[in-house]
Design brief:
about 400 residues; alpha/beta; 8-stranded parallel barrel; two-stranded antiparallel sheet; 12 strands; binds flavin mononucleotide
Length: about 400
């Protein structure tokens, strides 16, 4: 797709690829336009971060991304998707998060956290334990039961738990829980918040007619279905400093007949912008019957980029593109084409946590290891010179994959 447009800059060329140019949202400047996409690690205990999460996120920050968004983190204990999910429902969650945030900032990364409620997708096993409903065996092993609730008492599919239909008091309670969770995230000193309006979790499920068949003020018309996400955004904006960006990850389409559509998203994006959302992270799906999330499906390179392009153009809001963006050249092409302001990298950066630094090397942006952690950089600089003397390159045969 993009091999004809490979951008090869020499180190002394003044132009810097957009991917490596800073980007500012409100009072927060990212050093480059690469975002580590929020990805669940299922490694928390009682909502508290564990050593694996410290190792994981510090490595992501060390890897050079401009922004690291911490995984979906839950504002109520019962609203978790799995027992391994991190939480923001208790003050005891703040201290470990605050330690993690300051460690990540040591590497120059900006830090975000995705705040969420599982909705009708709650009460699942950790993905790597089976990804089905919590079983007697899980309970015997120490997991607690989690009870999904949603806009309507409609399970995602036959094998999923049936959620209880939320009453007015429960809806109000969830709004308060988002506010309380956001306050804790502020106390942990994250640079920004991302509200999870995607993948069939609670807030997105209110948007989608596939999951929301209510007849009160929270369902029915588009305006009613948008009410809960917009209410949460307004309440969050009230407590967030003006200088702090608020992002929303949106399933721009359900990809399903009778579901949430791209056209709906253009309308919602305008309203989110008015309510104080600064950027929409454009994902899709999650209300699907086949597979819990979109990333379970086989998809081609940049399968969601067109969604970002459309919202950016038609709603006039900044966007991030995500989904099978694997090479820096392709990421640069998306930015150059005005299809997104930021690119989120998910599985490719799990595979190679130094993706950003390798991209900087590949694109000729940094060939001296000056911004690498000092204990590595000093040696690697000498090593690269030695390799160059042999006509070799640090990336060696492990070049970036070419998109098919
Ligand atoms: C292990 C794993 C966990 C994920 N957890 C989340 C999550 O917590 N929140 C979210 O919005 N998306 C989540 N996603 C989706 C990713 O953020 C990303 O949108 C998706 O993987 C597509 O991007 P990619 O092709 O670069 O991986 C997860 C994906 C993976 C692979």
């Amino acid at each position: 797709m993009n091999s004809a447009r490979l951008i090869r800059l020499e180190p002394d060329m003044p132009d810097i690829p957009l991917l490596f140019q800073p980007y500012t949202l409100r009072g927060v400047t990212l050093k480059n336009r690469v975002v580590v996409s929020p990805m669940g690690t299922y490694s928390a205990e009682d909502g508290r971060l564990t050593p694996f999460q410290f190792a994981h996120y510090e490595r992501m920050a060390m890897g050079g991304a401009g922004l690291v968004i911490m995984e979906q983190t839950f504002v109520t204990r019962a609203g978790r998707v799995s027992n391994g999910d991190p939480g923001l429902w208790a003050d005891s969650h703040i201290e470990p998060m605050s330690r993690l945030v300051s460690e990540m900032k040591r590497y120059g990364a900006r830090t975000g956290i995705q705040i969420s409620h599982g909705g009708r997708k709650g009460g699942q096993q950790r993905a790597y334990d089976g990804n089905g409903p919590i079983t007697e065996r899980d309970l015997a092993a120490g997991d607690e039961p989690l009870y999904p609730m949603g806009a309507s008492a409609l399970p995602l599919a036959e094998e999923w738990l049936t959620p209880i239909e939320m009453n007015e008091a429960q809806i109000e309670g969830i709004v308060e829980a988002f506010v309380a969770g956001a306050r804790r995230a502020l106390l942990a000193s994250f640079d920004l918040l991302e509200l999870h309006l995607a993948h069939g979790y609670l807030l997105q499920s209110f948007l989608s007619p596939l999951a929301n068949q209510r007849r009160d003020r929270w369902g029915g018309s588009l305006e009613n279905r948008m009410r809960l996400p917009l209410t949460v955004v307004e309440r969050l904006r009230d407590i967030m400093p003006d200088s702090m960006p608020l992002l929303a990850r949106l399933s721009v389409t359900d990809w399903m007949e009778g579901g949430w559509t791209e056209d709906d998203s253009v309308i919602l994006a305008g309203k989110l912008k008015e309510a104080g959302v600064d950027l929409i992270d454009c994902s899709s799906g999650g209300n699907m019957r086949a597979g819990a999330t979109n990333s379970n499906l086989a998809r081609g390179p940049g399968y969601q980029v067109a969604l970002s392009d459309r919202l950016r153009r038609e709603a006039g809001i900044a966007t991030a593109a995500v989904g099978m963006i694997r090479t820096p050249q392709y990421a640069e092409e998306i930015l150059q084409g005005g299809k997104a302001d930021l690119v989120c990298i998910g599985r490719q950066i799990l595979f190679n946590p130094f993706w950003v630094r390798h991209a900087a090397w590949e694109m000729g942006v940094e060939r001296d290891f000056a911004t690498w952690p000092e204990p590595y950089g000093w040696w690697l600089d000498k090593w690269a010179r030695a390799l160059a003397a042999n006509g070799e390159d640090p990336l060696g045969p492990e070049r970036f994959p070419e998109p098919s």
